[in-house]
Amino acid sequence: MNRRAAVAVAILTTLVVLPGVTGYQAPGAGAKAPTGVARTLWGDPDLQGIWTNMQEARTPFERPAELANRGITNPRDQQVLREQLAQDNTPEARQKYEAQIDEAGGRGTGAGPVHWYESLESRRSRLWSVVDPPDGRIPPMTPEAQKRAAERAAARRDVGTDEPRPGGWVEDLSTMVRCTTRGMPGVYIPGAYNNNFQIVQTPGYVAISYEWMHETRVIPLDRRPTLPDQILQWLGSSRAHWERNTLVYTTDHLKEAYLTRTGVPKSSSATVTTRVHRYGNVLTFIFIINDPLYLTEPYIRESSWVFDPNQVIPPFPCEISPDGTLIPAGKVPSFLPGKNDILHDFATEYGIPSESALGGAETMYPEYIKKMKTMKVAPRTTTEHYKRIQ
Length: 390
Known about the structure:
The protein is of the alpha+beta class. 18% of the residues lie in helices and 18% in strands. The chain has one domain. It is globular, with a radius of gyration of 22 Å.
C-alpha cells in the first residue's frame, strides 16, 4: 500500500490539469480563475461551488485493449485524445451511441427525452481512468473474489439486471432501481447525465452533494473514531484531514457491492482513500482503492471536476421504470403523491409488497426484510407496464 500511496502523491503533485487542451470548453471557463490558493474565512483551502465531471462520461474505466495494442501508455496523450474525439463525434458514431441508449432503456422506453443524455457529445479529457497499475487495468481478483463472482453469476442466471430472482425479495433489486444510492465509489463515476456535484464547507466539515439520487456526504475533519465494525453503509464512513492544500479522506465500513463498469466485486473490507486538490477551476481527484479480501493489490483511479458556476442542481425525481416499459418515447413520468400506478404494477410484477416498492433509506437495512415478510403481497402478475421486449 505504501508504494501505491507514494504513486498517488507523485501523480497529484506533478499533474497540471488544463481544461480545453483537447478542445473541451469547460462550463466555467468564462469565470475568473482564482489566483494562488483560495481560502475560506476560517483559513481552509476553498473547494466550494458546483462542479461537473461530465467531460469524462464516455471515458473507459480501464485502458482499452486497442490502445494497449498500440503501445499507448499515457491516458492524457493529446494526439490520441484528438483522434478519439473526432471518431466519437462523427454522425455514424452518434447514431450508434443513441442506439445503445435505446437498447439500455433510454429514449425508446420512456426513460427521458434526448436532452437528458448530456454525454451524446463526447468531450473526453482522458483516455481511461485507472492510472496504476501501469497497465491501466484493475488488478486480478483473489480466489475468494472469483468464487464470490461465480456464485452471484450462477444465482442470477437468466435473471435481468433490474429484477429479483424467482421468490426473491427487494434486496435482489439494485439500489439504483430502488432510487436509493449509487454506492461508493460508484457515486464518483460519471453516467449519461446528472454528473454535477456541490461542495459546501464549514469549520470542521466538508459536505459533498451529488445530483444523482441527491445524496450528501458530510465528512468530518476532526479525526473522530470510526464506526463500530458491524455497521456498514452504502457510502461508508469517512474521516478527513488537510495535507497542506490537499483534502485527504479515507472511507471504510462499506457494504459489499460491485464496482461500476467492471463487474468486479467489492468486499466490506475495502477502503477508498481520496485526495482532492484544486487547480484554479479544476478539482483533481486521486482515488486509492484497497480491497485485501477481493483484489490482489490496490489500484489508483484519477478524475477531474470542472467548476461550473452557471449550473443549477434541480430536484431528482426518481420513479421506478424498469427496462421494457411502454411509456411513450420522450415522455417524462409525472404523478401526484399516491397516484403512480407504476409502483403498484412493479410490486405485482415481482411479487413484493407495494409499500416496499416506494424505496427509501429504510429498505436498505436487513431488518426491513423481516418487516416485508409481514406485509400483504398481491398475486404476482405480468402487467402492461412491464411487458418485456423480446
